[in-house]
Design goal:
single chain, 247 residues, mainly alpha, three-stranded antiparallel β-sheet, 3 strands, elongated
């Protein structure tokens, strides 16, 4: 005899899933998630299979698909491992973008400690960069690469990341000063700056050729000039020349 699995009434499922009854009714009405069973009094009863189906709908919705498109995709009987893997990669990409944005917010938070009255312009800049982080990272990095970056950040640990950020904050003014002074990129000092710069980038991409190439494209692309704390064209030109002189 087949053992019946757990079932949920619409209100119970809405509560456990963090959704509204109205949403579940809507999904039922348009044929996305239709409860497989009914009680003797005609109430909707959702089965475990219905719960899996609901997850698929919500995961695909988070990936940006319209409800009509989700219906088309699910008609093709998308396998659960594929949905889970795609959802995982998407969330990893979002995590990486959020971690990059964290550094920007942390700097503003530090400023707010000493200057509590922050102008609206600073918040408008933060909003703009919040939007741009997602757009730029998705433009230059694949979901798999963003997942790599998220894992690398986790492996390095917050202490190492904070040390690297501190070093960048010291190195960039030194490079700007060298450019302002007209320093020869082939000089020993310029090569020392380039070696330090490239060492910090190595911590970022870990020697992975694909990540290095994506990062180079991002930093040399028009979208990052002056945005998302990307290096300026003058900084890139100076470091590239100095690094070439290192042999």
């Amino acid at each position: 005899m087949k053992v019946r699995g757990k079932v949920w009434k619409v209100g119970e499922l809405a509560t456990e899933a963090g959704l509204t009854v109205r949403t579940l009714h809507h999904y039922d009405r348009i044929g996305l998630v239709c409860p497989a069973e009914r009680s003797g009094t005609g109430h909707r009863l959702y089965t475990e299979a219905d719960v899996e189906r609901l997850y698929q709908v919500l995961a695909l919705r988070q990936l940006g698909l319209s409800l009509d498109r989700i219906a088309e995709v699910l008609t093709g009987a998308v396998a659960m491992p594929q949905v889970l893997a795609t959802h995982r990669d998407y969330l990893a990409a979002q995590l990486a973008a959020t971690q990059e944005l964290h550094a920007l917010v942390a700097r503003l938070a530090a400023t707010a400690q000493n200057r509590p009255h922050i102008s609206a312009d600073r918040f408008l800049e933060l909003i703009r960069r919040t939007v741009m982080v997602d757009d730029i990272l998705e433009q230059y990095f694949t979901p798999e690469q963003l997942a790599q970056l998220a894992q690398r950040r986790e492996d390095l640990g917050e202490q190492q990341i904070q040390r690297a950020e501190s070093t960048w904050s010291e190195l960039i003014p030194q490079v700007d000063a060298a450019i302002e002074a007209g320093m020869d990129p082939t000089s020993e000092r310029a090569q020392q700056l380039a070696a330090q710069w490239m060492g910090l980038l190595e911590e970022f991409h870990g020697g992975d050729a694909g990540l290095r190439e994506s990062m180079n494209r991002m930093y040399t692309g028009d979208a990052t000039q002056g945005e998302v704390c990307g290096p300026s064209s003058a900084q890139l030109a100076f470091i590239t020349a100095a690094n070439s002189a290192r042999g």
